[in-house]
Please model this.
Amino acid sequence: MTSLEKKITKPWGILGSAWLEDLKVLGSQLLVDQGTLWVVPHRVDAHSVVKVCEYLRGEIGLNPICTSNRSQMFRALDQLADSAKTPICIVVDEMGFLSELYAVAAWVFIGGGFAQGVHSTIEPAIYGVPIACGPKGVERFVETGELQKTGQLTVIRDSHGFKKWLTEVVLIYRDPQYQAKWIKDTQMRLGATQKIWDALEKMS
Model:
């Protein structure tokens, strides 16, 4: 990520495990005012990625760049950096980069909450990053309730909620005390499952 970090404008917003349905709800609010938008589709097969890119380009007006073609990606980034007319949008059409992106994100939207059900929020939570998601399936995960109590996770219902959250996130993320607190809170919850199993074993 080092060479990319030098080329790509920050802050970075990450749409992790995103479904096309998520993108359609967020819509034009994905035209972020500053920084770079990273879209990591839930499905990275060629057909699904094409659909995501077509929507981002045709319906929102972004110019998505896929990470799988490195030479094309860096050429496109240089051109966009020179023009500065369109927000940079990078589509990660490969596996294995999501955790690395979460570690350097300014904010994260977890996908699935407007599709089959929201995906796990724990992975970005450990980095103290502000998180948002759609409402579907939120109750499946115990940690979502805890993350909402601390203010780290916001469940949004529509594109206006997403825009409002983004505006608030910019202010929150500038204060390092929030990130430090969220990291500490998450670390305290890690290993809870193992502790429960240990207690059950002692009882048996």
Q: What stands out?
A: The mean pLDDT is 86.
